[in-house]
Amino acid sequence: MSSPRRRIETDVMKLLMSDYEVTLVNDNMQEFFVRFRGPEDTPFNGGVWKVHVELPDQYPYKSPSIGFMNKIFHPNIDELSGSVCLDVINQTWSPMFDMINIFEVFLPQLLRYPNPTDPLNGEAAALLMREPESYNRKVKEYVEKYATAEAIEAATDVSEDDEDMSSLEPFSDEETAGMEL
């Protein structure tokens, strides 16, 4: 068994044995969902998000892909896709980290200390820089509207009913064979 494969299995097993609720996609240890709670002392407190994680074959040398399935209002998270800014992940990622670090350190720090100078959500970044109180209010509105148990169930229904998730993935070579690009 290769070292990256062993590391993937070890990290995912640690996450499965932790207090986090983890759901594997098709029993695949390289793709799963984790229920993540907003950190205390932030406007995200009380919110619950379903986070989609994909581990590349080169993990831990290459960072995981992380996306929020239910909406979140944050400068470094794309509101429509839920993708977390790759620069943010790649700048801080090290093979020394494991999946527990993502949910206990990385994501809480990202929510506590957003970086409005490198935004994926320009509206959130502008509001944070110009009117921090309004930004906090809007975050709380999103938490109440989209980061509830009901919202997670809705996110679950959408993602699990569409097993091939083609809207989230690029076209395959077979799909593009007859297309003019």
Structure notes:
Strands 1-2-3-4 form a four-stranded antiparallel beta sheet. The protein has a single domain (3-162), classed as Roll (Ubiquitin Conjugating Enzyme), CATH 3.10.110.10. It has helices spanning 3-17, 86-92, 99-112, 122-130, 132-146, 149-161, 173-176; strands spanning 22-25, 28-37, 48-54, 65-68. The protein contains seven helices and four strands. The relative contact order is 0.14. The model is unreliable at 158-172 (pLDDT under 50). It is α+β, with helices and mostly antiparallel strands and 181 residues long.
End-to-end separation in angstroms reads 39 Å
What CATH architecture do you see?
Roll
Work out the strand percent.
Answer: 5-15%
Determine the structural class based on helices, strands and strand pairing: alpha+beta
Net shape: globular
Across the major sheet, the strand order is 1-2-3-4
User: Which consecutive residue ranges, at least 5 long each, have pLDDT under 50?
Assistant: 158-172
Instruction: List the helices and strands in order.
Output: HEEEEHHHHHH
